[in-house]
From TrEMBL:
Organism: Stachybotrys elegans
EC number, UniProt record: 5.4.2.8
Pathway: Nucleotide-sugar biosynthesis; GDP-alpha-D-mannose biosynthesis; alpha-D-mannose 1-phosphate from D-fructose 6-phosphate: step 2/2
Residue sites binding Mg(2+) 2 per the record: 232
Name of the protein in question: Phosphomannomutase
Enzyme class: isomerase
């Protein structure tokens, strides 16, 4: 990280001060699991002169650091006004951490142990072309479960995604988990290529809107009247669906960074 930390007008001095643009990461800002391009970073920089910007991703902050902070050469928390990792369970405003809660305190150690043990047994018995490592990733606000394992390479990810379109390994796994753990009030969301997320119902991407609402109540806080959300999995069952259809947001479907750039140019003349 050696580039200069970017400077921006204060939030209440931007031309569109009651507008915020929130971006899902994989798809709208980067190709899956890859890095943001200079063109995307430059578009975000221009947009941030006009209104507030934030990301809301399912992954943890470490991944967004790799995908967006690293290519920019500065911490990702300096590139956005709001950073919402794990759907907002880890949240930053202007580089400062906001208060949040976590998955373990919701579910409790005993049920958590049962859930993880069940997943690991289930994966052990799966007959799929390859398995790598890190089958359950523990995050602040969720767990991420991957039959092939999160250590898979990009090529292995692509292969598994294609395989799973037919084999529906994740769909069957989720159906079984719903049967076994349905009483815990959990949502199982297939959002990416090789895994699914498990989190308390309601802790989907709309969770981040709670932070915007509570920040608005603080002295000098801003109420965003226009909350634009840009996502790719905006269809029912996709992990952007809830925030995309939420009455508090204006939803945009964009499948890749180029589509995002085109949409931003049209909407904000940047
Ligand atoms: O952002 C979408 C998903 O991206 C990753 O999924 P996968 O590794 O399966 O491609 C994960 O970080 C997941 O949590 C996230 O929802």
């Amino acid at each position: 990280m050696d580039a200069e930390v970017p400077q921006f007008p204060p939030l209440d001095a931007r031309p569109l001060q009651d507008t915020i643009c929130l971006f899902d990461v994989d798809g709208p800002l980067t190709l899956p699991r890859l890095s943001a391009t200079p063109e995307t970073l430059e578009t975000l920089r221009k947009l941030r002169q006009k209104c507030a910007i934030g990301f809301v991703g399912g992954s943890d902050l470490k991944k967004q650091e790799e995908q967006i902070g690293k290519p920019a050469g500065v911490p990702v928390t300096t590139l956005f006004d709001y950073c919402f990792s794990e759907n907002g369970l880890t949240a930053y405003k202007l580089g400062q951490a906001l208060e949040s809660t976590n998955f373990i305190s919701y579910i409790g150690e005993d049920d958590y142990k049962k859930l993880v043990s069940f997943c690991l047994h289930y994966i052990a018995d799966l007959d799929i072309p390859i398995k790598r490592g890190t089958f359950v990733e523990f995050r602040n606000g969720m767990i991420n479960v991957s039959p092939i394992g999160r250590n898979a390479s990009t090529q292995e990810r692509n292969d598994f995604e294609a395989f799973d379109k037919k084999a529906k390994v994740r769909e069957a796994f989720v159906a079984k988990l719903k049967q076994e753990f349905g009483h815990l009030g959990l949502t199982f969301s297939i959002g990416g290529q090789i895994s699914f997320d498990v989190f308390p119902t309601g802790w989907d991407k709309t969770y981040c809107l709670r932070h915007l609402e509570s920040e608005a109540q603080k002295p000098g806080g801003i109420t965003y009247k226009n909350i634009h959300f840009f996502g790719d999995k905006t269809f029912e069952g996709g992990n952007d669906y809830e925030i995309f259809t939420d009455p508090r947001t204006i939803g945009h479907t964009v499948m890749n960074p180029n589509e995002t750039i085109v949409a931003l140019k049209e909407l904000f003349d940047i």
